[in-house]
Write a structure and sequence with these properties.
The protein contains 16 helices and four strands. Strands 2-1-3-4 form a four-stranded mixed beta sheet. Helix 3 runs parallel beside helix 5, helix 3 crosses helix 9 and helix 6 runs parallel beside helix 9. The longest helix is centred in the middle third of the chain and has 21 residues.
């Protein structure tokens, strides 16, 4: 569609067309000109590929923590919205945690997706009326980044926590965002909300999560975006070696830290469900095993899938959203075959995982009765994966003090 007619006439034409047609690149270009959004940096242009063909993910730019110090973000009701997409397993984490902790009326959510036919301008709102964010009127996620820092040049990523009062991105640190929700929003959680991040064992959980990042969470991306055989091989080895260790750990533990679900289980679940049902059957390349071939991991994933919050964020190929997106973007095995699979039946599981637990009828840890909100809140640790140098982020050999196949706090969560 040409952008050559008078501006007011064109605005009317856009308004009418957005109510009835697919989101085209021409429409995206027009919206970008209206808002000042520039074409997004892409993986394909090499900005996150080093000279050896390794994928080096960009750092998270908005990392101001939630806390009580000057300059920290403050937990408030009805101020923040999580912008996320079903297509990105990273962005499922904070909304899953929010739902488990009963914070749906405290922190809002808006789903984003690709814009136009080629996604030149990044995440936006292709399924909303007039292609606008219903909360802020924005056309692109990038607008919130531009509002927060006009000099920002990286990709706008999901999840992004936006202050919808100021319309600015305030935190896109997926490494620690769930921890802020768990800890700093404790005062808004129902009294019986589970403890996903027990204070006594945060060091162990943080260390394990920082091991998960390069090996499992980013492991399949390291393969998918590699542009050299060696980079692909290193990503492949890291991912499947880590899965072997995880499978061994889950042989004797219902969840990774024992009897109860923690923040770590959420990070594993969203990554491996996506790998099993999506990435594995796309263009990832040869793989050692599917997730269902790791006996204990496969049972563990299905055990979590029975919980309604986890089921919602599985985003299986058979879901209506996924069908809509695949129809909108491209057709492949996921459209032709996987969309017809009865996952409820295929992913059903009995009680076999319960025998690994000392508290088999409960999957969540309760907070101690005498624990106050202030007692629970501590400063959240920093992660090496946000260090803003290529050298630091190129080193994927994260040194963990305990072999990941061993649960260092087995039978201690209730202590």
């Amino acid at each position: 569609m040409a952008i050559s007619c008078g501006i007011q006439a064109h605005k009317e034409k856009v308004k009418n067309e957005t109510d009835k047609v697919l989101y085209t690149d021409n429409l995206a270009k027009y919206f970008a000109q209206e808002t000042g959004v520039k074409p997004r940096d892409t993986i394909q242009n090499g900005s996150e590929i080093n000279e050896l063909g390794y994928w080096i993910r960009q750092t998270n730019y908005f990392t101001t923590p939630f806390g009580d110090k000057e300059g920290d973000l403050k937990a408030e009701k009805d101020r923040y919205t999580i912008y996320w997409t079903y297509l990105c397993n990273w962005s499922n984490r904070p909304v899953l945690v929010r739902d488990i902790l009963g914070l749906q009326d405290v922190i809002d959510e808006v789903v984003v997706d690709k814009t136009g036919e080629t996604n030149v301008y990044g995440w936006g709102f292709p399924y909303e009326k007039s292609f606008k964010d219903p909360k802020t009127g924005a056309y692109f996620l990038a607008e919130f980044y531009k509002n927060a820092d006009p000099k920002y040049k990286g990709r706008s990523t999901t999840p992004t926590l936006v202050d919808t009062i100021t319309k600015k991105a305030v935190n896109n640190d997926y490494h620690r965002l769930t921890n802020y929700i768990e800890v700093q929003f404790r005062k808004y959680q129902p009294k019986d909300a589970p403890d996903l991040y027990p204070k006594k064992y945060r060091k162990e959980i943080d260390e394990f999560n920082d091991w998960l990042f390069p090996n499992i969470n980013d492991g399949h991306y390291r393969q998918a975006f590699a542009t050299s055989p060696q980079a692909y091989k290193d990503g492949y080895n890291a991912f499947h070696n880590a899965l072997e260790k995880l499978d061994k750990r889950l042989e004797e533990n219902r969840f990774v830290f024992g009897d109860y679900i923690t923040d770590s289980d959420i990070r594993i679940y969203v990554s491996l469900v996506k790998f099993e049902t999506d990435f594995y059957v796309l263009d990832l390349g040869p793989q050692k095993k599917r997730i269902r071939e790791y006996k204990n991991i496969w049972a563990y994933i299905r055990d979590l899938f029975q919980i309604k919050e986890f089921k919602r964020y599985a985003n299986l190929p058979s879901t209506e959203y996924n069908k809509l997106h695949r129809q909108y973007s491209f057709g492949n095995y996921l459209t032709r075959v996987a969309s017809q699979i009865n996952y409820e039946e295929e992913w059903a599981i009995g009680d076999e995982r319960k025998k690994l637990s000392n508290d088999p009828e409960n999957v969540y840890l309760k907070h101690p009765e005498n624990e106050s909100v202030e007692d629970y809140q501590t400063e959240i640790s920093k992660t090496q994966w946000n260090i803003n140098t290529i050298e630091a982020r190129s080193n994927k050999e994260f040194k963990i003090s305990t072999d990941p196949s061993i649960n260092p706090i087995k039978n201690k969560l209730r202590d």
